[in-house]
Model the fold of this input.
Amino acid sequence: MTSAPDTNSEPILELDGLTKVYPGGLTALDHVDLSIRRGEIFALLGPNGAGKTTLIGAVCGLVRPSGGTMRAFGHDLSSDWRKARSRIGLVPQELSTDMFETVWRAVSYSRGLFGLAPDKARIEEVLRSLSLWDKRDEQIRALSGGMKRRVLIAKAMAHEPDLLFLDEPTAGVDVELRKDMWRQIDAMRARGVTIILTTHYIEEAEEMADRVGIIDKGRLLMVDDKDAIMKRLGRTEAYFTLSEPLAEMPAMLADYPVELANGGRELCYRGGDGTGKGKEDVAEIAKLLTRAGIDFAGIDVRDSTLEDIFVSLLENDHQERAA
Done:
């Protein structure tokens, strides 16, 4: 991974109370506040219908907000949109491009849409960086799904944006191509591009993002550095398979978050945090069991992933809404 973003610089994008209510009453964005740092990779996670694409559409001028303010590069996007838009790139979720155009012409045309002079060297640089140079004279319709998605990224990069939105950039792409695109995205950040991506693949956020935002039903549930989220909300789970079932919990374990399961044949620990305390607890529990002569055949230990935290937050949010 490349260096961390400059947290001391002015935010590159600021959303304050951003709201979108569609005719019929559907609230797609519910007073969203968000500040994006220059040079970071920010992952916006959420289920289908959470508001991810609507948020991107609002910033990129494709969706008219119902309320709130948006500022990019110091410009108010409601009144000074054109100055900011030339510095914003978008890779949409859908493959929306002329399938009969060649790769070269499609990417060159995108640059011209922003009023920039033709620059063959720039187009070649973009195509080479995305492993598209050998495909430059092929029609887009002849490319694989993964290559078509790379063309969308090339089109968005052609006018040299400072802020790039990637809406589900690896949807429908196989694992190897997905990892290759992760490398390309990291290389873009290395060139100074600030990147906001939405994804259904939680491992993408774990692999790449500096910060993560979780959105559900239009509400931003959490925004924080990825490592801070893991430290604050991460947990350790351990399952001791006991050689003989226990009728009750041993008194010596009263201070630990443990419970018996599977008819007393399993001792389950759920606790700790992202600092390693959980594993320390598990080691201590193992010692206590051994000293008490309670045999166990094995221990299965796992730490929370970002996906576990994501699912837990959504479940809690749904429970709160239903209450």
Notes: The first helix runs from residue 52 to 59. The chain has ten helices and 14 strands. The chain has a mean pLDDT of 86. Residues 101 and 139 are 5 Å apart (CA to CA).
